Every structure is written in structure tokens, then in C-alpha cells.
Amino acid sequence: MKSRFALAYILLPLIVAAACNHTRRFPLQGEVVAKNIDAQEITVKHGDIPGFMMAMAMPYRVNDPNVVKEVQPGDKIAADVVVGSDRSDFWLENVRITDKSGRSHPDARAVPSMLAPGQLVPNVTLVNQDGRAIHLRDFAGKALLVTFVYTRCPMPDFCPRLSRQFARIHEELKTSPEDYSRTHLLTISFDPKYDTPAVLRKYGLTYLDGNATGFAHWDFASARPADLREITKDFGLQYDDNSDQITHSTSIALIAPDSTIANYWSTDWTAEDLTNSLRKSAATRAATKR
């Protein structure tokens, strides 16, 4: 009897650990299109990953900083995508460079020249859900949070997740009239051919619980292809729209009330993080006006 209790004592922690470990692994093969050493991320353009996601260009966290230093845009890699119990929590392990020849190709080496914090945002023309022309600098005086999606995105953990989290931020800011009046949200489409103002309005209403008054605080917009290329380059995004399935990386940008870049996020963020950053940026502006 004593030995049975001893055996149970030994096995119980192992059973609990196994039950808590809900990670899954998926093989990935793709091409590195960008990297961010500070964030320990590499952006990989890859094909379908059955059971996880369709073809996409996606930033992935890499826990080994030496890997991020070693890989270069243009490299072909193989790796394991590790997905936690929350499908929005994922990272790369066992990254292997399988082909370095792409480094010699100028296009492969090209990395989007992101605007640095403190730089003025471009004032390209966008068209919102009401068919009205708007510009990023129209929101000067407010803290502006910007992200990019497309309405036909089939992956619930990517574009729809971004929109759901922006909806949470929108609702949280509504609890404070002061915060609501000095902040704004903007969702820009990667798919201007399909995402017309009418489509964007219908999409936006889905996340505004059907209440069109929310468009006063959250715009959904598209841009002409040339302007879209400019703005995605400035925000450090990669995207390919050669088919109905648009492959793209993700980026959220905070634009300060003086229309300069304040911060970026790709995968490591929560709605609370973004809300707090918006409030802080708006409050800083309010303090300087006193």
C-alpha cells in the first residue's frame, strides 16, 4: 500500500503537467521576408499549414535570439510552429535555414522601410465606409490606433481577431467620454477591389453591434492600390494580393496626436495594452494643452 501511495505521489505532478501542456506543433516551410531583432520576430511567407492557417505572410516570435540574428530576408527556412491553448499564442521552434541563395536577390533582401517612432505619418487619401475621403492627419489632436485587415479573411484567429479586439477597445473607451472624445480607431483594408464602402460599412456594423453611431469613433477604410502600397510600406507590412486569398503580415500602429508614429505591435499585445497606450498618448496631449 505504501508503495502505491509513493507511486501516485511521483506520477501526479507528471499527469498535471501533461494536462496543462496543450501546445500543438505544425511543420512550416517558407521564406523570411523581414525580421525585427528588438521584438525577436521574423516574418515568414509560407503556404498552407493544415490545421492551423492558410497561406500567409505572418510575423512569428522566436525565443532564441541567435536565430533572429542569423536568418536574413530571402532565406528559405523549415521550422515548427508551436501553438498554445489560445490559438493567438504561437511561436517558432527548431528553425533551420534550408536555402540562403535568396539573399543575393535584391527583391528578396528588401525589407519594408518602416517609419520610425517620431516620424510624421503619410497623408494618403483613404475612403471610409460612408464613401468619404479621409486622411491620417485628419485625426491630429487625437491618439489614433490603426490596423490592417480584409473582410474576406477566412482565418478567425487573424483579421477577425483584430477586429474583435478593436471592438473591445472601442467599448472600453466608451465608458469614459473624455477618453472617447480624444481617441480614434481606424481599420484599413488590404483588399480595395472587394472592400468597397458598402462592404466596409456592413463589416463595421458587425463589430459595432449594428450601431452606426460608432463610426464617429471607428472608421473602416480602403485606399487606391498605389496609396495602399505606400502606406503598407511605411507601416512595415508585407502583403500579396495575387489571388482571393491575400497573404499578409500584421501590424498595429499608434499614431500620436501630433500625427507621428508612437508605437507598433505585431503579435505580442492584448486589447488592454492597446487601450492603455491610447489613453496614455491622448492624456499626454491633453496635459501639454493646459
Give a brief description.
The protein has 290 residues and is of the alpha+beta class. The protein has 8 helices and 14 strands. Helix 4 (159-174) packs across helix 8.
Q: Helix fraction?
A: 25-40%
Number of extended strands: 14
Mean pLDDT: 84
- Give the overall form: globular
| Cα distance spanning the termini | 76 Å
Largest sheet: spatial strand order? 7-6-10-9-8-13-14
Q: What is the CATH architecture annotation of the largest domain?
A: 3-Layer(aba) Sandwich
Beta-strand level of the residues, as a percent range?
25-35%
Number of domains: 2
How does this model look, in words?
With 290 residues, the protein is α+β, with helices and mostly antiparallel strands. It folds into 2 domains: 23-109, Beta Barrel (OB fold (Dihydrolipoamide Acetyltransferase, E2P)), CATH 2.40.50.320; 125-288, 3-Layer(aba) Sandwich (Glutaredoxin), CATH 3.40.30.10. Helices cover 31% and strands 29% of the residues. The chain is built from 8 helices and 14 strands. The protein has helices at 2-20, 65-70, 106-109, 159-174, 177-181, 197-207, 225-234, 271-288, and strands spanning 24-36, 41-46, 56-62, 76-83, 90-99, 125-128, 133-135, 143-149, 183-189, 218-222, 239-240, 247-248, 252-255, 261-265. It has a 7-stranded mixed β-sheet. Strands 1-2-3-5-4 form a 5-stranded mixed beta barrel. A hairpin with a 6-residue loop joins strand 4 and strand 5. Helix 4 (159-174) crosses helix 8. Mean pLDDT is 84; it is low at 1-20 and 106-111.
